[in-house]
Amino acid sequence: MIPGHLSDSPEAGEPTEQFDVLVVGAGPTGLACAIEVQRAGLRAALVDKGCLCNSLFHYPSNMTFFTTSELLEIGDIPFPSTNAKPTRSEALEYYRKVAQHFRLDLRQYETVESVGGRDGEFVVRVRNRFGQPGRYLTRKLIVATGYYDLPNYLHAPGEDLPKVLHYYRDPHPYYDQDVLVIGGKNSAAIAALDLWRHGARVTLVHREAAMHAHVKYWILPDINNRIKSGEVTAYFSSSVTSIHEDRVELVTPQGPVHVKNHYVFAMTGYRPDFEFLQSLGVRLQGEDRLPVVDPQTLESNVPGLYLAGVIVAGSRTNEIFIENGRFHGGQIARDLASRLTAPLSA
């Protein structure tokens, strides 16, 4: 039994709805899960604290995917694109159309506050953006929350200043500004190049001796050439020691350095919400905090609670992407269809 709320009974005026399956997380993997659950004849709904595909929405506005469009498809719906590799805008439109096509029951801007009950009778309490409560009863639960909502923090003095950002969207507000980008992987390289090309003065700081070797093959030589030419200033084998309103202090192989600064983009990666998983009773194993799941059904050690998408890999977030996580819905739905022989929706 999951502890959940102090009482699993409805509070005064608290609306209650009931489903066969509730999916927490409305990204591509969550959508794929809901589609496959519906195809199995079960009543499903999705709940997300943000918008549809909230993580994709917060990607850089001009981002191009590394993969091709057919590898992003869900629900056997073709993903047409005018480009060899689709853009963020095209992906958002595609997933909107898919949700509309399958008439998915999507509850946006609702935050899960607690989960109680047990297999067959989970009680999920939510609160919407206006603070209004809601209560869902569901026989099974799928968690597909991804990892993009929780940045890896620097834990450096000044990180809480409003000038420090952990997501990069658009270069325009940073024209003619001194901008520091922290990191050495794809997100840092993309942000540094985009900012530089739109008139920002860019400094890049990375704790390793060079940009990461797995930076996208068309981006790596670009950022390396900008650094070599001095168009982007780079400090490798270096780190940020403190952030101030007008400057950032670094420790470098040459000693301390003070860099004039207006904005900081800490592109230091993201992590799954392990605390939420543990609050559900999911066991995490080893240094990588791998959740305990059945590899065939993706049911966790908590009966009736399934995991899907990148969270299955724990902190190894480079192992599961949309391309392979989209198939998790089929695995889970097959198991659910064999267990829920009398659907609520029947």
What do these coordinates show?
The structure is a single chain. By secondary structure, the chain is of the alpha/beta class. The chain has two domains: 2-150 and 270-339, FAD/NAD(P)-binding domain (3-Layer(bba) Sandwich), CATH 3.50.50.60; 164-266, FAD/NAD(P)-binding domain (3-Layer(bba) Sandwich), CATH 3.50.50. Helix content is 21%, strand content 26%. It has eight helices and 18 strands. The strands form four sheets. Strands 1, 2, 3, 4, 5, 6, 7 and 18 form an eight-stranded mixed sheet that branches. It has a five-stranded parallel sheet with strand order 8-15-9-10-11, with helices on one face. Helix 1 packs parallel to helix 8 (328-339) and helix 4 packs across helix 5 (220-229). It is elongated, with a radius of gyration of 22 Å. The two termini are 27 Å apart.
